Amino acid sequence: MHYKEIKADSLLKKITTQDKLFNGNYSIDPYQNCEFGCSYCDSSIDKTIFIKTNSADLLKKELEKITKGVIIIGSVNDPYQNAEKNFKITRNLLEIIKQKNFYCHILTKSDLILRDINILTEINDCTVTISIISLKNSIFKIFEKNAPSTEKRLNVMKRLSEKGIKTG
Questions:
Q1: What span, in angstroms and rounded, lies between the C-alpha atoms of 36 and 44?
Q2: Dist. CA 79–CA 91, nearest whole Å
Q3: Of 61, 65, 166, which Cα lies nearest the Cα of 121?
Q4: Nearest to 108 by CA among 67, 79, 140
Q5: Cα–chain-centroid distance for residue 60?
């Protein structure tokens, strides 16, 4: 996997149709492309992960111009893929969302989200959706070979729930 740091022109995207699945008003993808390499996802084809290094500055400016709502983090690319361990873009964005008193809904497969549990518990309204393709390891290994195991994901849901964070 190759990382390339970039300066994004914008970060926050307004959701223009009613989002009945995740109830979001805006979406953010801190990374472009994904390291998990899930066979059913086209964001895993390119082996370059683009790191939006100016994400925090952009989000601060963009939140000043919008009405409060739910921000979906990771609508296309997982916000807690391996790059997040070093770059901490998602963590920084969560701090800003907390400070500005917005709501968020995070979509991930990763147990790395547990690193940020202290921030998640302080966000006014935070929901986390953990995607699981199958409870069978044989199936999981075919389609999501580089993602955290189903067992780890179920543990994440348990730990988040124990801390009062809405999860599913």
A1: 7
A2: 9
A3: 166
A4: 79
A5: 18
Q: Is 155 helix (H, G, I), strand (E, B) or coil?
A: helix
For 143-158, the pLDDT digits (tens) are 988 899 999 999 999 9
Specify the number of domains making up the chain.
Answer: 1
Give the domain range for residue 110: 2-167
| CATH code, 32 | 3.20.20.70
Dist. CA 4–CA 51, nearest whole Å: 6
pTM, 2 dp: 0.94
165/127 Cα distance (integer angstroms): 6
Angle at the Cα of 76 from the Cα atoms of 62 and 54, rounded to 5 degrees: 35
pLDDT per residue over 73-105, tens digit each? 999 999 999 999 999 999 999 999 999 999 999
